[in-house]
Amino acid sequence: METLLASQNLPLIGGGLIVVMLLIWWLYRRTRDGSRLKRILGEISHDRIDGLVIPNGDDGEIQIDHLLLTSQGLLIVDIKDAAGTVFGSDKMKEWTVISEDRRYTFSNPQEALYDRIAAVGHIVRQVPVAGRILFLDGAEFTKGVPSLVTNLDELLAEFGEPDKAAAKFKIEAFKPHWDLVRKAALGTQVDQMFSSDQRSGPRSPS
Description:
By secondary structure, the protein is α/β, with parallel strands linked by helices. It has one domain (2-198). 42% of the residues lie in helices and 27% in strands. Strand 1 (47-55) and strand 2 form a beta hairpin. Helix 1 (2-44) runs parallel beside helix 3 (152-159). It is globular and about 65 Å long.
C-alpha cells in the first residue's frame, strides 16, 4: 500500500522539483543580469540621473529612466527585460516577444526614445545626445535588430572609453551642459544623481 501511494505521488514530486528548478534559474538570471547591468553602466558613465523628469519643449514634461554622462556625450538608456525571441522593426507599431511559455506584445519603444532624445537635446544644444534601447541577456532578435537597440556587450563596446585620460578631458567639457540638465529637472529627482568626483572606488548604479 505504501509503495502504491509513493508511486502515485511521484508525478507531483517531479512537478514540484521542476517548479523549484525553474524558480532557481529565474532568480539566478535576474541576479546575473542585474550585476552585469550595474557593472557596465558604471564603466561607461561618469555621472547618472535616474527617474529624471524634464520639460519636453512643448509645454509638457517627459520622464527619462536613466540619463548617463559618458565620454561621448549624454546617453539615454531605456531598459527592456524580455526573455525570448523578439520580433520588431523600425516600422512596426508593436513588437512581439515569444518564449517557451508565453507570447506578448508591447509598443515600439523607438518613438518614445526619440522624444526623450529631442527633449534632452533641446536643453544641451551643443552636446551629442544619444539613446539606446537596452535588451538584457535572454532577448534574441532573429529577424534583424531595429535601430537604437543594443545589448550590454554592444553598449560597453560603443560607449566605453579605455583611455581614461582622454575620457576625463571630454567629461570636463561636457559638465557645464550636464549641469543645465540638472537645473531644468522638474521635482527633486536630481537628488538621486551621484558624481564620480564625490565617491572613491568604482561606482555602481543605484
